[in-house]
Design a protein that fits this description.
270 residues; alpha/beta; Rossmann fold; 7-stranded mixed β-sheet; two-stranded antiparallel sheet
């Protein structure tokens, strides 16, 4: 069986250390009984430790060479190997509209996009675990006031409790990445709704963090305009990284009220 050569354009870094693979696979044990979807299995180093967990496992892989390898190496997985682009998939069809655990040694070049996809399907994904760049993991888990706290931190922490589990060093991969990696787990919190206009919330978070060095009074101008009376509120003296998720919710409600008073519509979400 011919080994698959990692492809740079797919962001592939194949994990070699079986102990690390076992530890990553075991992160799904926090969400027992749910079926598992693994993204980017490559040659199955993580898959081999997921299969014995006595629940349905499906894998989605965009690389045709890896798919061919998996079909030969794991014949018991045959019907559950999906050759597709995870970012373009309709996740409701995977397990007949039932919730599942998302996991993987995620391709580094699309890890943030994977988590935005998770947020779009949060009702289907009560738990997400896996390995990503250390820098991205730190960003997702960051607390308000931290330099790494940003868009991804707020949008994910609004809906998920985040655990930074452990760091993984470069030498356990082929080829070794230029950065360290980390394993995280995100578990849905009990919120069914945020208590604000969720589309506007996302817009406020993105707009203010796009000028994170400025105070909210300046960074909110693309939404509120230059001379909105609301910006005299004391909260606008702060910078976006100083606000908790709940404070962003409160800010969103204030912004929506101000927009309603001036009969302006929020700009389109991008």
């Amino acid at each position: 069986m011919r080994l698959v050569k990692p492809k740079k354009f797919l962001g592939q870094h194949f994990l070699k250390d079986l102990k690390v693979a076992q530890d990553i696979a075991d992160t799904v044990d926090a969400c027992p009984e749910l079926p598992i979807l693994e993204v980017g299995p490559g040659m199955g180093v993580l898959t081999q430790f997921l299969l014995p967990k006595e629940r349905q496992v499906k894998v989605v892989e965009v690389d045709y060479e890896s798919v061919a390898y998996l079909r030969e190496a794991y014949p018991q997985l045959e019907e559950n190997i999906i050759e597709d682009d995870f970012l373009k998939m309709n996740l409701h069809r995977l397990f007949d509209d039932q919730p599942f655990v998302l996991t993987g040694n995620y391709p580094y070049n699309i890890s943030s996009q994977i988590f935005f996809k998770m947020l779009e399907n949060k009702e289907l994904i009560p738990c997400c675990t896996g390995m990503i760049q250390k820098e991205v993991a730190e960003r997702i888990a960051a607390a308000p006031g931290s330099k790494t706290y940003g868009i991804l931190s707020v949008l994910i922490q609004a809906w998920y409790d985040v655990e930074y589990l452990f760091t993984v060093h470069e030498h356990v991969f082929n080829p070794p990445p230029k950065v360290k990696s980390a394993v995280i787990r995100m578990t849905r919190n009990d919120k069914l709704q945020l208590g604000c206009n969720e589309r506007l919330f996302k817009q406020v978070v993105k707009t203010t963090f796009n000028q994170r060095r400025k105070t909210l009074r300046n960074s909110i101008k693309p939404i509120l305009g230059k001379d909105c009376p609301l910006t005299e509120d004391i909260i606008f003296n702060k910078r976006p990284e100083q606000l908790s998720v709940q404070e962003f919710v409160e800010l969103t409600n204030k912004v929506e009220e101000a927009l309603r008073e001036t009969n302006e519509k929020p700009i389109n979400d991008n």
